[in-house]
Amino acid sequence: MNSKKSGNQTVTFQNPPVILSRCNVVGPKEGDGPLKGSFDVILHDTYDGEKSWERTEAKILERAMRGALEKVNVPSDSVDYILAGDLLNQIISSNFAARQMGLPFIGLYGACSTMALSIALGSMLIDGGFASKTLCGASSHHDTAERQYRLPTEQGSQRAMYSQWTVTGAGTVLLGDSGQGPRVTAATIGRILDYGETDAGNMGAAMAPAVADTILNHFQDLNRHPDFYDLIVTGDLGSVGLQLVLDILKKSGLNINNFSDCGVMIYSTEQDTHAGGSGCGCSAVVLTGDILNRMTSGELNKVLLIGSGSLHSSLSTQQGESMPAIGHAVCIEK
Q: Which CATH architecture has domain 183-333?
């Protein structure tokens, strides 16, 4: 048997799946940010005609899924599986969006690492011969996340400066076993690490060690150097977590210059999001917008995306549990 496993945590694809199409939908705050030109749909308000924010989130994820198919005129019945997830209990946004799509569905929960996880698993299905096309996506909504994890937005509670702002957005990629477009060539599945952080507002600190661990294992497994990539980008560590990861990597002997974070990229400092963006939709919309646009234009040829996820719940936080975290990486090459 010719194994596709490289090292401890990485798989390389013999027939790398192609990103045939992508689509994203964002809220008004994201549409006012520095990446506004890279989004397909910008909502005028956070309800978009629905009676609840939860319904809005399911709606925008479905819209992103259908948009990815419509861009390349692919009928929905040619898609083998949907792989998607979100932040809400029982991943209801993804469940309800998949209900409308009527396709075989694999629900995922990786918190904010879900977009990278969905692409990794969707690619494994295709390279393994179990699918010819997969829809991979993720979503989040600022107000649904606030309602579930923290305090009602109407209460106007003061946020710590190291906290992040959950992105209102959904992004989807359509992967295929053939065609034109960037290819997913490898994936590194992360390990859960927990260094005892209990402040649910400080997710960057909780996620940084797990993300650094995945990065180090990715380079060790594939015997690569950071210069192999034009861009190494984390999912949503924000400014606090990003600096912590750089410090951890430097102490491990790995200096990376071509490094950024989706949570830092999506908002400007004038938008007062404190440490930056977070949420499943953060890396989903930055990847399907700015990053893949730059690959299409030729500015970027090789990108490593490391989705970061803090795997706590509102209940575990209330019970004083610490926050386990994970990072999943996917390599995308033009």
A: 3-Layer(aba) Sandwich (3.40)
- Distance between CA 208 and CA 309 in Å, rounded? 10
pTM of the model as a whole: 0.95
Does the CA dihedral 14-284-204-36 come out positive or negative?
Answer: positive
For residue 258, which of 301, 296, 309 has the smallest C-alpha distance? 301
Residue showing tokens 């994203």: 24
Taking Cα atoms as reference points, which of 284, 265, 263 lies closest to residue 67?
A: 284
Percent of the chain with pLDDT over 90: 82
Give the domain ranges of the chain.
5-176, 183-333
**Which tokens is 256 given?**
């990376």
Q: CA 334, CA 317: separation in Å to the nearest integer? A: 41
Spell out a b/e string for 279-315, using b for 16 or more CB atoms within 10 Å of the CB, else e: bbbbbbbbbbbbbbebbeeeebebbbbbbbbbbbbee
What would be the CATH architecture of the domain defined by 5-176?
3-Layer(aba) Sandwich (3.40)
User: What is the pLDDT, as a whole number, of residue 157?
Assistant: 63
Beta-strand relationship, 259-261 and 231-234: parallel
Predicted confidence (pLDDT) per residue in 191-205, tens digit: 999 999 888 778 888
